[in-house]
Amino acid sequence: MRKISSYIWEYKVPYLVAVASLLIAVTLDMMAPRLTARVVDDVIVGGNIGELKYLLLGFLGLGLGRCIFQYVKEYTFDKNGAKISGDMRRDLFRHIQGLSADFFDRTNTGELMARVKEDIDRIWDALGYVSMLLIEVCYHTCIILTCMYMLNWKLALIPTAAMFLCGCVAVVMERKLGDVYEKISEENASLNTVAEENLAGVRTVKAFAREKHEIKKFLSHNKRYYDLNMQQSKVFVKYYPFFTVVTKVVPLLTVLVGGKFVIDGEMTLGQMTAFVAYSTNIVWPMEMLGWLTNSFSAAVASNKKVKKIYEEKPSITEVTNPVKLEKVAGKICFDHVSFHKADMYEILHDITFTVEAGRTLGIMGATGAGKTSIVQLLQRMYDATEGAIYLDDVNIKELPLEQLRTSVSYVMQDVFLFSDTINENIKLGKKKYIDFKTVRRASTQAQASSFIERMEDSYDTVIGERGVGLSGGQKQRISIARALAKKDPVLVLDDSTSALDMETEKMIQQTLKTLENTTKIIIAHRISAVRHADEIIVLDNGAIAERGTHEELLAKHGLYYETYESQYGGLQIQDCTHIMGQAIAVE
Description:
Rossmann fold; elongated; ABC transporter transmembrane region fold; 64% helix; alpha/beta
């Protein structure tokens, strides 16, 4: 993680301008009591009326100068804070995008949203408005105390003692608030997670009449969040009155003690007037200490949370000098591959197969047999625990991640469509290279053009979040069109026709047959989806239980045969080729 100071250094010139404007504005503000002293001593007491007009012009000049430099200070600090927070948010998001799949397996979306949004906002606040006030408070205090000691060092001891007491209270308050803000940040992430899950799955909640349960779950987190904020308020309320009392007592003591000094001849009336004005001005920094401590504690807690994200490192990395293939043909080889995630049972065991470029591999197996894990290993979402995976006879660990993943068009089992137009969803991944003609051809091949072109805006129709409003079959066909439009050398269909009718599935299979230069891996539960594959492997408990062509597997009377019987029960094997179309219709 980059240090915050490095971000500030990038904008050092604007920050210097902002700080210089702040110093000038405060200095001009502190000159006003000096002019007030001159008015009292020279004009009112001394009777020098001719000097009054110059003193009034001085007040006017100070006021105009302060307005100008105050504006420059406020604007520049806010602008710098906004730019730095934007850079921090960009860098944090890039870091999160670069993390491996195992990180997202153990991290909630709501937590990441809290880090990217709320925590960066608190840091933004600290780098802008709060940092400006901290600098202003420090300089304001120093210059006022200097002026006070120049006027009367004895009388200046009163505000000095008051500032010291306020500083001690502020330190204690900051420590207590720091612990509370840590817990608030954690609970904010949990609250975001619950809200995000329920809003994304609101249709499921309604379908199972779970509204009351989900509301209760949300309210429990909301109550916890409320309690923590009340705990923070109690700390603030407990200590803040001390600052208020001090700010009222200091000017009063100054007037009482300063009046005695005037009577005793140790100060002039004008000097005491200026001193009272300074004592009133020093009240503001004391009042601000409590609020600034509160905001600064929140920013420190948020920065700690952001640092924890940066401490996460991707488990999937490229080698120093990766091998870049000039052209990917699409040959895939799994060589004795085993895989398990941390603290989990073995998902895949001793998987070995080879798919020549342009050939088709079918993968079948019960739910949880490890079918999808094979694809995740091929794309290096995870690394195999044992064995090796090769693309065109090169170990995929030696290939650039970008080349590897852009060589595989993956139609996922869980279709994800973005809230964008259908055209943009299909062009996903290669928006700069895919034209509308390609989009339309891919949609036709995926049997999606028929329903897309019936829509009012056709391919420019904006679909809702995650494709809401579309049926499962429509989303699958758009997802297939997206994969076909990329024209990558490897095409993976992960149970991607499960929501389609038999006739549509058959037409898509006819399209797949025309992709002679594309290596195809078809993961399915239906026999009809894989029966034409050059080789079919059947997984059982993460291992290859059977392999062969459709006819060879039927002849073995094993798991594949049992699946066939369950789907097309009662049909004779020897007649399956002749009456396959009828069997599909029966299904």
